[in-house]
Amino acid sequence: MKKILILFTGIAALSLLTGCASSKAGYIDSRGTETIISLNQINIQDWNNAADQMIASLLSSSVLERAPRQPAVLAISRIVNNTQQRVDIASLTKKIRIGLSRTGKVVTTTTLGVGGRVEDQLAKDAADYAAFMNDTPAATQMPDYSLSGKLLEDKVSAGRDRQTTYTFQLSLTAVASGLAVWEDEVQITKAGRKSSVGW
To answer: Taking the domain 44-192, which CATH number applies?
Structure first.
């Protein structure tokens, strides 16, 4: 009996030590492959991946070099969330703004939030500013471009296998003409098995 008690005590102690070792916290690269992947939500690596690809696409298009002034002035317009979850769209747009600002080719307006028609608000702000200054044309206050977009989600399943695709769509519009001068989309697909708890 005494030997059995010692054996159980040893197993419990070993389990405790193993549990402590496995719960050790540490830092990982938020852009690396060690991050946790969740099928039912957009993860930090998804935002990073989408932002990096969109920035690279926009810069390679040479649209910013053809702006009426340098650096070009960019405003963030409406980004529509067409997914089934609450999404912090600002996480994506902020990463894109930071990335573009670092190139020196773009300055972004910070007076507008995501959600409304940027052209309407900017026109009103410019008119108010011009009236206040009395010698500044309203047109000089308008940005060169506005960035708008949409976030889509598509889920499919087969048995216990699950697949989720998030599509990030962005359009760059020349405010003066109202024409789209650049458009692109990035698709991020994640697949895995359904767990015993949750989706």
So the answer is: 3.40.50
